[in-house]
Amino acid sequence: MKRQETMQLSQIPSMTALLAAVSADSRLSAEPRSTITPILRSVVEDIRSRGHSGETSPREYESAAILEAVFRKIELRRLHRIRPVINATGILLHTGLGRSPLPEVAIERVARVAAGYCNLEINLDDGQRGMRCSYAEILLQELTGAEAALIVNNNAAATLLALCALAEKKEVIVSRGQLIEIGGSYRLPDVMQAGGARLREVGTTNKTRISDYERAIGENTALIMRVHTSNYRIVGFTAAPSTPELAQLAHRRGLLMYDDLGSGAMLDDAVWTAADEPTVPQALRDGADLVSFSGDKLLGGPQAGILLGSREVIEQLREHPMARALRVDKLTIAALEATLECYVDSDTARESIPMLKSLNEPITTVQSRAKRLVEQLNTKPLDIKISTSMEQSYAGGGSLPAWPLPTACVRCVLPRTQQVHEIAHRLRIGDPSVMCRIRDDSIVLDLRTIRDSEVGLLATAIESALSH
Ligand SMILES: *Cc1c(COP(=O)(O)O)cnc(C)c1O
After folding, report:
1. Ligand 1 close to Cβ of residue 229 (< 6 A)
2. Pairing verdict, β 256-262 and 290-294
3. Is the pTM of this model over 0.90?
């Protein structure tokens, strides 16, 4: 090491001096010592190691610069804390943004159950051990006509459990057109392998016939599986057997038919038919022995995996050791039960479940919200060009991929001096945080996923991002 560098390194203030400076800094003084000390050490450590290789400038050794670096690290750390985000992307079921918001009644139920003890596994009638989820399972049976139900952590867990319990070391027949990948971390062939089942692919990407399934059935076949192509559609020259055809074939050959529905549309709504989205009750009526879907997609509830089917199959899953590892907690149960109660009739469901409400919201309502945002932005001294446009958004989260929703957007064209990615970054790290779309030199705010109560906050967030 050169002599000059040694001298510089010795100029780094002592830990005691730095901690004293922290106490005097209004941005940092409220942070607990247990947070500050390790961050402070790592900043000093970093300066030292770069100092040894001659990569630092003398300014970095000053107390103010060190504190600034500590402050930036603490800010970054805070950004990882989970918090609300205003979703201006227009994607209703954005997996990155937590998929569906919960109905008001579900939020209240979660809060009440979370605050104290509850009857999670106690039967209040006889005081003996009860079954977790029993009420949610009854609701699901009533809503769908299923004989039995089981609730697990998410739909990936539901699939895994189904494969482990029904097809371990056996073959599962799936069409090549349905070997889905969702969000990168869920790929059906990998889940199949993890579940100990052997994938038997049949047909081609665009066409699979019932005879392909028939020919693939052998001694070792356990299941015929249909997977809903929830986040894509194969269109054009295509063919795939229907659920009734697959179920009939399975039953004729003494096999089970499992339908991974993915999105879980509960109401027998015309909307779903138009969007080529199978509903849960229909899949059961079509003869599937087992269906599964997510709780936080089109159902509009908390993250969960819901399995419905014949009593025999569901009991087999329930008794598998894996079921214990995949079970849901009391907060999920509270939210799911309250969400399912909203389905007593379709009007109540559409009114009280935010997911369904947003999906069904008339375009005129979305447009008037866009107008209100423009009005609010116009009251602010902003150097941007504002316009509205009619666009399309998508349900997202692997649902209704081929079903564009009309929506209204507000577009803010930025002045040349502003970098669009920089503004989007400031919107994300702001308070409240905002996720928007970017197009060319402008930020685009989709009003279908904005709540009425968020319009004012959004206008303020934009103002502060631009006047930074
Ligand atoms: C979304 C989806 C999954 C994964 O569900 P998670 O609840 O996210 O685990 C699996 N299969 C299909 C068909 C899906 O659409």
Report:
1. no
2. parallel
3. yes
